[in-house]
Write a structure and sequence with these properties.
Oligomer: single chain
Order of helices and strands: HHHH
Shape: elongated
Strand content: under 5%
Helix content: 40-55%
Structural class: mainly alpha
Number of strands: 0
Radius of gyration: 23 Å
Distance between the termini: 52 Å
Length: 169
């Protein structure tokens, strides 16, 4: 299956990611709205999947580690280094004032950008590893899987449960 990747499709993915929308269909949100957030877990945890197209947002435990460590930490570090450079270059601030002037904005940026970093990670993942589109009204975005191996004797036999009542020697 060949997939057409272009600047237009990359722009579509990135625009949807910055709007915190599903990377597959672009209509439904990835997170609960900010005005319904009641805890930090609500803020940081995406929904299970898209109700329109069925695209799973978190595929496995630890799926978003790269988004936190690379995207969120990377942008926060760039912001911190830029702030430090500007404040050090143009102002003669004491060390503690300089540290507070850099660390506080970086901390708040990191918390508020966490949702966008996960959304950008999902968009990049879908852009570089697209899922096969099935037909249908709902978008039908399902991951393509290889066809089952036919003709092998193991494919037609039912799986037998383990005998846990046996003795162990």
């Amino acid at each position: 299956m060949s997939t057409h990747r272009s600047f237009a499709s990359a722009g579509k993915h990135l625009t949807g990611a910055m709007r915190l929308r599903c990377p597959a269909c672009g209509t439904k949100p990835l997170f609960i709205p900010w005005y319904k957030v009641r805890s930090l877990q609500d803020w940081f945890t995406p929904l299970d999947g898209c109700p329109r197209c069925g695209y799973a947002y978190e595929r496995e435990p630890g799926y978003f580690l790269l988004s936190i460590w690379a995207i969120n930490y990377g942008f926060s570090s760039i912001l911190g280094l830029g702030l430090y450079g500007l404040l050090e270059w143009f102002f003669d601030l004491p060390v503690w004032t300089l540290m507070a002037s850099v660390l506080l904005p970086v901390l708040f940026f990191s918390i508020f950008f966490a949702r966008h970093s996960k959304s950008l990670f999902l968009a990049c993942d879908l852009f570089f590893d697209p899922h096969h589109q099935e037909g249908g009204d709902d978008g039908g975005n399902k991951a393509s899987s290889p066809p089952p191996v036919s003709g092998s004797p193991a494919s037609h036999q039912p799986v037998q449960p383990c005998d846990t009542a046996g003795t162990v020697r």
